[in-house]
Amino acid sequence: MDQSQTLILADAGATERFGRLCAAALRATKPGGLVVYLEGELGAGKTTLVRGLLAGLGHAGRVPSPTYTLVEPYLIDGQVIQHVDLYRLRDPRELEEIGLAEALAGAVIGLIEWPDHGAGQLPAADLVLRLELAGQGRAVAWQALSAAGQAMDQVLRQQLARGLGEPPVTTGR
Description:
Elements: E1 5-9, H1 12-29, E2 34-39, H2 46-57, E3 71-76, E4 79-85, H3 94-98, H4 100-103, E5 108-113, E6 127-134, E7 137-144, H5 147-161, E8 170-172
Parallel strand pairs: 2-5, 2-6, 4-5
Antiparallel strand pairs: 1-7, 1-8, 3-4, 6-7
Helix pairs in contact: 1-2, 1-5
C-alpha cells in the first residue's frame, strides 16, 4: 500500500469541499474506470463526501444515500458513476444476483460505501478513503492501491499543498 495521507475536516462543508477536490483530481487524471472504497462508521461523512464529489463533477441534483437501493447511478458529461452502499447487504453473494460486477466494469467510476460487506465480490479498490469522527469534525485518510489511485493521490496532494479547497489541517502518516 502507498503511504497514506490524513486530512482533518472541520465540518460537513469541509467534507463536501474535500469531495470537490476528489472531483478535480478525477478530472485532472481522467482514469476511465476507477473503484473507490469509502470506509468508516455510520455518520462519518461517506455520503457527504460523495455529494461533494458529484457536485464537483457537475451534478446539480439531489444525492440520496443508496442504503436501500444499493446503487444510485449518475451520468455526468458522459461519465458513468455508480454510488454503491452495501450497509444493508446480508450476504456478499447477493452482489452477483444484482449484477454489480457488470455495473462497475469498464470506464465506470465506482464509489463504494461499506466495501467490507461485499468482500470477495467487489473489484479491487484503486483508492481507499477512510473517514472517522474527529471531535466536531472528521478525519479522512486515503491510500492509493493502483496506478490510477496513485495519480489521484498525487493530484490531491498537489491541490492541498497549494491550499485549494480551503482544507483544514493536513498531516502525513
